[in-house]
Design goal:
Blueprint lengths: L2 H13 L2 H9 L3 H23 L5 H9 L4 H13 L4 H11 L2 H14 L16 H33 L2 H32 L5 H19 L16 H10 L1 H21 L2 H7 L5 H30 L1 H14 L13 H27 L6 H34 L8 H20 L13 H8 L8
Helix pairs in contact: 2-9, 3-9, 3-10, 5-8, 5-17, 6-8, 6-17, 7-8, 7-10, 8-17, 9-14, 9-16, 12-17, 12-18, 14-15, 14-16, 14-19, 15-16, 15-18
């Protein structure tokens, strides 16, 4: 085969890949195609960063546990990044005024990721017994990183929206999520292995240096993506825009629904990993294999179908079906016993089947219900409300209930305080789903029925992106 034929064959293969097909359908120019590919690369590094670095990761649970953290400390570590989401409001005004998303990602966003390289050294601070000093320093570092990291969401998400047309957005996001799931599966196993086998005095240093480096690579990917600006821009007045957003009925309904969903999900969700490790006795590898790996496998197989359903039937039906299923899967933990991995496996395997659909729908609805000219501010408002009143408040309420019940000596034995919290979370989440999602306003893209969406999800035929 000569060189010319080889080039044609390679070019044909590249043009027939799933992303190439989507880009051809949307008639995207080469710079935009390359930019979206760099965004996907950044999302990959960011996802791997998130496996290690975050308030509720296995690495953070292990690090905080080694410093003597209790339920309230765990809750605070999970809630801090959500509370810091309030900084998205001033950051959104800054981004909208300057229209320089790239420079903020490569300065403030990059700094937030670099800080994670310091976390692993905290066990050496003040000697091995200075747990209070270490915990306060851990919380302070996490707070600073989270505040600076708030700029990331208001930059990259509108940036992506301006590059990726609405008609292919669901399939692009589902393809991205499939790739991220495979990466999470492999990397999660590696992280769990390192957490189990590395010496206690060095493993967190190694783990968080790797996590911080991956976060830095995430930010650097955006340096190679073209900074596409919205076709219409206007000066944002925060008070006026807030009133405008709350009068926007589809946006208001989505915000209320997703806030309630996050509150009820985080009421118990933040404590499932500590519960599995401390009460069920699972190690890092078991948490990863029956948690991250199981959910990644389910995501790889199902998320392309969710993407197709989203583009064909609209986000409302996808949201309803995804939330119904995801709200019920924590019930598997009610049958948990020490050393039993089945509840963790079933929760993550079956749960991922549904929650990747609800997450896709939420991401798509954020973009479709916010106007182009003020999208960063709308997304900041959405994130602040759902993160603070939803995730952070839910996490802190869950930690308070656990400590209250523990101090009162309630719910001992097989049906312990964690299982009571899980049951309460499931009942509230399912109730809010059935109350709020059907009441959301239909759009022109919403058509078909839940039965048709479910039929598309079933493995009856191969689904293409």
């Amino acid at each position: 085969m000569d060189l010319s034929s080889l080039r044609k064959k390679i070019g044909k293969g590249l043009s027939n890949n799933p992303l190439g097909v989507l880009y051809d359908e949307a008639h995207l120019e080469k710079p935009i195609r390359r930019g979206l590919n760099w965004v996907m690369g950044g999302n990959m590094f960011g996802t791997l960063h998130g496996i290690i670095c975050g308030g509720g990761t296995a690495a953070m649970v292990g690090l905080a546990g080694a410093m003597g953290a209790g339920d309230m400390e765990f809750g605070l570590l999970v809630a801090l990044p959500q509370i810091a989401a309030l900084m998205q409001l001033p950051f959104s005004m800054l981004v909208n005024k300057t229209q320089k998303r790239k420079i903020w990602l490569l300065t403030i966003g990059l700094f937030s990721r670099v800080l994670w390289m310091m976390f692993g050294f905290l066990p050496l601070l003040g000697g091995m017994e200075a747990n209070a000093l270490k915990l306060y320093t851990l919380i302070t570092l996490l707070g600073i990183s989270s505040v600076c990291g708030a700029v990331i969401n208001v930059c990259w998400f509108p940036w992506f929206s301006d590059m990726c047309p609405l008609r292919i957005r669901g399939r692009w996001l589902s393809f991205r999520d499939s790739i991220l799931a495979v990466g999470s599966l492999l990397f999660g196993l590696l992280v769990a292995l390192m957490l189990d086998i590395l010496p206690i005095d060095s493993k967190y240093i190694v783990i968080f240096l790797i996590g911080g480096a991956l976060g830095v690579m995430d930010m650097l990917c955006f340096a190679f993506s073209p900074e596409v600006k919205p076709s219409v821009t206007r000066k944002i007045q925060m008070g006026k825009t807030l009133v405008e957003a709350l009068r926007n009925k589809p946006f208001r309904q989505l915000t209320i629904m997703w806030t309630a969903w996050n509150f009820t999900a985080n009421l118990s969700g933040a404590y499932l990993t500590p519960y599995a490790m401390n009460s069920m006795g699972l190690n890092f590898m078991q948490i990863t294999v029956f948690g991250t790996v199981a959910s990644s496998i389910a995501t790889v197989f199902i998320v392309p179908r969710w993407g197709r359903a989203l583009d064909q039937f609209g986000a409302r039906n996808v949201m309803l079906l995804g939330c119904i299923g995801a709200s019920l899967t924590p019930l598997f933990y009610l049958i948990s016993t020490p050393g039993d991995v089945l509840p963790t496996l079933l929760h993550n395997l079956v749960g991922a089947f549904f929650w990747c659909g609800s997450n896709l729908a939420a991401n798509n609805m954020q973009l479709s219900t916010s106007p182009d000219e003020s999208r960063p501010t709308y997304i900041a408002i959405f994130s602040c409300i759902t993160a603070l009143l939803g995730a952070a408040l839910g996490t802190m309420a869950g930690g308070w209930l656990l400590e209250w019940w523990d101090g009162a000596g309630w719910f001992l034995g097989f049906f312990d305080r964690y299982k009571v919290l899980i049951l309460l979370s499931v009942v509230l989440r399912f109730g809010f789903t059935m109350l709020l999602v059907p009441a959301m306003e239909k759009t022109a893209a919403d058509n078909g029925s839940l039965r048709e969406v479910l039929r598309m999800l079933l493995p009856t035929k191969k689904v293409r992106y």
